[in-house]
Design a protein that fits this description.
Elements lengths: L1 H12 L4 E7 L6 E7 L2 E5 L1 E3 L12 H6 L5 E3 L1 H6 L3 H6 L3 H5 L5 E3 L3 H7 L4 E2 L4 E4 L6 E4 L1 H11 L3 E3 L11 H21 L7 E6 L5 H13 L5 E3 L8 H12 L8 E3 L5 H9 L4 E3 L2 H7 L2 E4 L2 E4 L19 H5 L2 H9 L3 H27 L3 H13 L9
Parallel strand pairs: 4-14, 5-6, 6-10, 10-11, 11-12, 12-13, 13-14
Antiparallel strand pairs: 1-2, 2-3, 7-8, 8-9, 15-16
Helix pairs in contact: 7-8, 8-9, 11-15, 11-16, 12-15, 14-15, 15-16
Bound molecules: zinc ion (ZN).
Zinc ion binds next to α13 and α15.
């Protein structure tokens, strides 16, 4: 009996991921939690900066830590094409290769194969496509995606899926979702490092609530350590996205983390948390920074606008980040206009700081059972309107 118990204990200790649900906000139903991984603990709800090519564009790992990043995301598709997963593995894995010692999540490559390749061919086996860099003919399958992700060595890896396009015929959505389930089973079978890397399943099913339910239920049977919600924020109206999100999170087990893929506008982060999402990622804060746009407590600010030429106040007077403590809007505008990389760096730094601080405030509000109040106040200030409803 004791021996059996020890064996169970040992099994628990080597689990790649453990989710601790700390509390549920009495006002909103949002979850406060902790995800324990082999490279440290993540406080949830959390936003994950995206480091497509094993780097969050323009920022060093030290700066990522300064702005409060607890986990970053990197893209399997891009690293497979360049430099190749074998080289990353030879370097000792992605953590060593990019000098990031905190948790990492890699996606499956599915999303990029579908979105960057007009000439792809989908079959039961996988997806044939051409490299957008060299034009070379390549093939990704559930087994290949997991092989690459095992070599990269991220703490959380994703099942190979099809992100169903929008709009799509119901029959297509149904066939695609069922294939994604069959692929999910193949991913589990192919996974070589389950004690070190947690493999998440991805709920698909388009905008059809019954198909979403079927997808969620069949994935839950496979007992993944976490679940993602994919195929949202793909062009559908926002209210429809929230309807699908709310009904899908309601189907997922409370004791596993939930990850809403590719969503990162400030209102979606707050509202997603209200619906019980624990993890988010999006290129938005760094992408708009490179166009010279900042997220501030008063809403979006387009730094290149002429009206900031002589504005010597900080980007966001309510922000205490390095950029806002040290530089003016006029200087940042000058850098953006002159196409100086430092300007893009400073705005990227601020935007990530802003979103990660927002998530910190969301966690604080959950702790105090007042996330609806906080969300309403935040959205009023950010969007200058109360038209964006947090509850139905
Ligand atoms: Zn700032």
């Amino acid at each position: 009996m004791i021996r059996k118990w020890r064996m169970i204990q040992q099994r628990v200790m080597v689990l790649a991921l453990h989710f601790e649900l700390i509390k549920v906000c009495k006002q909103s139903g949002a979850r406060l939690g902790r995800i324990h991984t082999q490279h440290g603990v993540i406080e949830t709800p959390i936003f994950m900066p995206v480091g497509t090519q094993a780097t969050v564009k323009t920022l060093s790992p030290e700066e990522l830590k300064e702005v409060g990043s607890q986990i970053i995301l990197s893209n399997t598709y891009h690293l497979f094409l360049r430099p190749g997963h074998e080289i990353v593995e030879e370097a000792g894995g992605l953590h060593a290769f990019m000098n990031w010692d905190s948790p990492i999540l890699t996606d499956s490559g599915g999303f990029q194969v579908f979105s960057l390749n007009a000439l792809r061919e989908i079959s039961e086996e996988g997806v044939a496509f051409r490299s957008h860099i060299s034009g070379e003919k390549l093939f990704l399958s559930p087994e290949k995606s997991i092989e690459i992700q095992n070599a990269l060595g991220a703490d959380i890896i994703m099942a190979f899926d099809e992100c169903t396009p929008y709009p799509a015929e119901r029959q297509y959505v149904e066939d695609s979702m069922r294939r994604t389930i069959r692929w999910a089973k193949r991913c589990i079978k192919a996974h070589q490092r389950p004690d070190e890397q947690a493999l998440f399943g991805i709920v698909q099913g388009g905008m059809d609530l019954d198909l979403r339910r079927e997808s969620a239920e069949r994935l839950i049977e496979l007992d993944f350590p976490g679940y993602a919600i994919g195929g949202l924020s793909v062009g559908e109206p926002k209210e429809q996205m929230y309807e699908v999100l709310e009904s899908t999170t309601g189907l997922l087990p409370a004791n596993k983390p939930r990850y809403l893929m590719g969503v990162g506008s400030p209102d979606s982060l707050v509202r997603g948390a209200i619906y019980g999402v624990d993890m988010f990622d999006c290129v938005l804060p760094t992408r708009i920074a490179r166009n010279g746009t900042a997220m501030t407590s008063m809403g979006r600010l387009v730094v290149r606008n002429a009206k900031f030429a002589r504005d010597f106040t900080p980007l966001d007077p309510n922000c205490d980040c390095y950029t806002c403590r040290s530089y003016s809007r006029a200087y940042l505008r000058h850098l953006v206009k002159a196409e100086e990389i430092f300007g893009l760096r400073l705005i990227s730094y601020h935007n990530l700081y802003f979103l990660l601080r927002l998530m910190e405030k969301v966690r604080e509000a959950i702790r105090q059972d007042r996330l609806l109040d906080f969300g309403e106040q935040f959205i009023k200030q950010y969007y200058g309107t109360t038209d964006i409803q947090l509850t139905f």
